[in-house]
Amino acid sequence: MLTRRGVLAAAAGSLLLSACGQPGQRPDDGTPGSAAPDRHELVVGASLELTGRGAAHGVLQRRALELTAEELNVSGFPVGNLRRTVRLEIRDNGSDPRLAARQATELARRDEVHALVGGTLAETSLAIVGVAQARQVPFLSLGFGDGIALPLAQRTFVYKLTPDAADVARRMAQLIESLRLRRVVLVAVDGPHGDAGVRAVRLALPAVDVGLARTVRLPVGGTGFTDAAERVVSAEPDGVIVWATAPDSGSAARALRRAGYRGTLVLDPGAVAEETLTRPNLAAVEGAYAIHPACLGGSMLTTSTTAERDRREFTLRYTQRFDRFTGFAPYASDALRLLTSAARMASSVDRGRLRAYLQTQVVEGIAGGYAFAPIRHGGMEPDSLGVYQVNQGAWTVWS
């Protein structure tokens, strides 16, 4: 079967030489933006939401980064004629876009990182985008939002690992059709992530002949959801889509149940974090559905047994270290693996060469599949998405 991933793999290969600069570049040449050659390191700067409203995802991504760096550093990885290790420079942006931008600037200028990772919130990712482009530092975004890697002409150093809203919405629409729901309400958080969801859902539902009774926006900050929930209930839907990130997803579910809604809940991937299945939320989210990448449970990686093994091993290491794996997409782990793969292929940690070889990556990662190309810098492949349901306080594969 001809897939988008296969087409992009061919495109990436044919355009690789033109994307890499002039012939004869010396591999691992220590050009500006590289760490001192004698350090033998790939230096990755991460601005993450370790506190604030994005911490439900930011803390999980830090864990994924550190676990993967430890694994890679056991024996290092070849880059040209050197064997390098990963050094992480992690900063807490406090879920503040302005702080995220300042941190990205400092990491690029003072710490001379080879690449940037981070921004689990769309707002912080978008703040880092400007810095990455100005400083010409490859940036792998972990945020939800369709405007992060587009327009491509202004995002040449930017790559997005999360699923595109249109792919998530189409999978939601298929689920809603199979559940025979005919009238739904969309509850979307204010901001770029919610905006992307609103656009995508409005396009996806008519394709399955499902009516969108109302769109209700949630205020940023996790409070004041009562009024929004009451507006949802007054529309008398038989299904509700909650398009938000944890912890807002769980808070919205609680508000809806308190307002008297007892129907079906469908959540986008941003809901899947440990916070959503904590005790205060369990009764509200029991039975809820979520669209999420393959790593959540029940492997969907049918094309790569190596990828399946890597995902299982990552889950095992994570569980051993942190006691439980309640389900999240380890995008940060994939970001680090994509960077080390690009460094191997480029025989260099030069920022420009890393960027060029990132856009040739067509791989199955821990979280799901990616097909980057010069004409496409994100996000996750749609066939990586599955349907899950909360069953007795745990995410389970829905069939």
UniProtKB/TrEMBL annotation:
- Name listed for the protein in its UniProt record: Amino acid/amide ABC transporter substrate-binding protein, HAAT family (TC 3.A.1.4.-)
* Similarity annotation: Belongs to the leucine-binding protein family.
Domain Leucine-binding protein per the UniProt entry, residue ranges: 43-391
Lineage, top-rank taxon, reads Bacteria
Q: What are the protein's UniProt keywords?
A: Signal
Give the PROSITE patterns listed for this entry.
PROKAR_LIPOPROTEIN
Q: Where is the signal peptide?
A: none
Q: Does the keyword Signal apply?
A: yes
Q: Which Pfam families match?
A: Peripla_BP_6 (PF13458)
The source organism is: Micromonospora auratinigra
Q: Does the keyword rRNA-binding apply?
A: no
